Structures are given as structure tokens and as C-alpha cells.
Amino acid sequence: MTNKDNGYAALISEGRLVRPYPVVIMAVEGKKYGYSPRLLPEMPPDKPENIVNGELYEVDSNMLAVLDELETHPIRYKRLPTQCILTGTPSDKFPGLAKGSTVDCEVYFYNQVKPEHYLLPFISNFKSADVAD
């Protein structure tokens, strides 16, 4: 997202999704030590709510196409609309927004979900330090 040749991307603010969703850490297929977070599309009714935190970006159509390719949308991940609440102070580039604003956004949900994925521990934030190499 930092390569300007891919298009425009600007950080709006930190935020959290309005609806709870599970995020799990899974091994990356074909990599001996690779792990990545996977946002699952439904919160099981028998699990405690899991609030997902992250960052909200504004992107142009060129960057969106690059992200879709990176996420192999709609095969491995599917980009779907949802809402988030801004938890940080938005950049001055977005004067109509304030901390606490609810905004429409799109996120990439894992699209190859198996029942056993819902048995993995849920996380709210992901940092590469969260998984051991």
C-alpha cells in the first residue's frame, strides 16, 4: 500500500468493526513458517463476542484492484461491506470524520472456511510478533 505505482492509499484512522467477527491465526499453505490472520465471516452463537481492531484506509480503484489480487478476491478472500467505528483521531485529510464516527467500509473475509476454523482461538488484534517463527 506504500508503493504509489499501485495507486492511492491514505490512512483514515484506527478503528474497530461494529459487528463481532472471529479472527484466527492459520499457517500459510506452502510456507514452512508462515502464519497469517484470517477474518471469518460469521460469529458462532456459542462463543463470546470478538471485537476486531485495525486500520481504515481510503483507496482508489487502482489500489483496490491490487488489493483484490493480493487477497485473491473472490476466491481465497471475499471483500464484503460492513461498518466500523473510528477509535483514533482521523487524519486532517478527512475533515468530516471524528473519533467515534461510524463509517461504511469493506473488509476481506476468508472465503475457504471449514468448521474446524471456528475451534481455533480468536484474536482481536494481529501483530507479526503474535506468532512464533
Roughly what percent helix? Answer: under 10%
CATH topology-level fold name: Hypothetical upf0131 protein ytfp
Radius of gyration (Å): 15 Å
Order of helices and strands: EEEEHEE
Any low-confidence stretches, pLDDT <50, length ≥5? Answer: none
Number of helices: 1
Attribute tags:
133 residues; four-stranded antiparallel sheet; two-stranded antiparallel ribbon; globular; Gamma-glutamylcyclotransferase family protein; GGACT
Explained architecture:
This protein is mostly beta strands and 133 residues long. It has one domain (8-125): Roll (Hypothetical upf0131 protein ytfp). 8% of the residues lie in helices and 34% in strands. It is built from one helix and six strands, in the order E-E-E-E-H-E-E. The strands form two sheets. A four-stranded antiparallel beta sheet has the order 4-1-5-6. It has a two-stranded antiparallel sheet with strand order 2-3.
SSE order and pairing:
Layout: E1 9-17, E2 23-27, E3 35-39, E4 53-59, H1 61-70, E5 77-86, E6 102-110
Antiparallel strand pairs: 1-4, 1-5, 2-3, 5-6
GO molecular function, one term: gamma-glutamylaminecyclotransferase activity
Domain Gamma-glutamylcyclotransferase AIG2-like: 32-114
Organism: Amphimedon queenslandica (Sponge)
Could you give a short description of this structure?
This protein is mainly beta and 133 residues long.
